[in-house]
Amino acid sequence: MLGIFSGAIVSLPEELVAAGNRTPSPKTTGSVLVNKFVEKNPSAVSVQVGDYVQLAYSHHKESPLRPRSFGAKDEIFCLFQGSLDNLGSLKQQYGLAKNANEVLLVIEAYKTLRDRAPYPANHVVSHLSGDFAFVVFDKSTSTLFVASDQEGKVPLYWGITADGYVAFADDVELLKGACGKSLASFPQGCFYSTALGGLRSFENPKNKITAIPAKEEEIWGATFKVEGAAVLAHGE
Prior knowledge:
Blueprint: E1 2-5, H1 14-22, H2 30-40, E2 45-49, E3 53-57, E4 68-73, E5 76-84, H3 87-93, H4 102-115, H5 121-126, E6 130-138, E7 143-148, E8 157-160, E9 166-169, H6 172-179, E10 183-185, E11 190-193, E12 198-201, E13 209-213, E14 222-226
Antiparallel strand pairs: 1-3, 1-9, 2-3, 4-5, 5-6, 6-7, 7-11, 8-9, 8-10, 11-12, 13-14
Helix pairs in contact: 2-6
């Protein structure tokens, strides 16, 4: 899956900008990145949302245990990969139909967070049990919300393209070509929200997240760490 967002939606993460400046490397534009995704993944679906956002996904080579899905409702768009162990009980909690899937559940959970302030975001995400990574874009408010499960079992990476788009994807090789060293593994147990001030840990909401410069030979430019947590947010 792939989501790219212009600077009109997302402020460039300073840690990723710094990582790219430390080790300048070739990059491509967001449009080239989307085209490469479509070329690489048969039967890929690409959706332009307004002037500043593009989302894409494909079932090509997906894991049967961690399928990819896409959905939209009430101008809220969601890319989801993985599965929720407690989907049944969450559907009851949010009043959803029995045939509702993870995408519709995440959209409904996001709407609860948006409309019932000050409902804590860490409560919404921490109630999700399973292997997952998702990207939600709310067109009505131009808000982005991204999250990865507590153990990072579904890979998710983010980076900055040559023309200043922030990109999220489950394919690190795809992002490497577009983002150079302005690239990192999205930290597990964390969420990123443009409405709530950027990157936060939902496991340890009071703990600060810092970016550690990566070694020259590593594929990315930085590794994010939740202070006080035992595990670094890095890739396999």
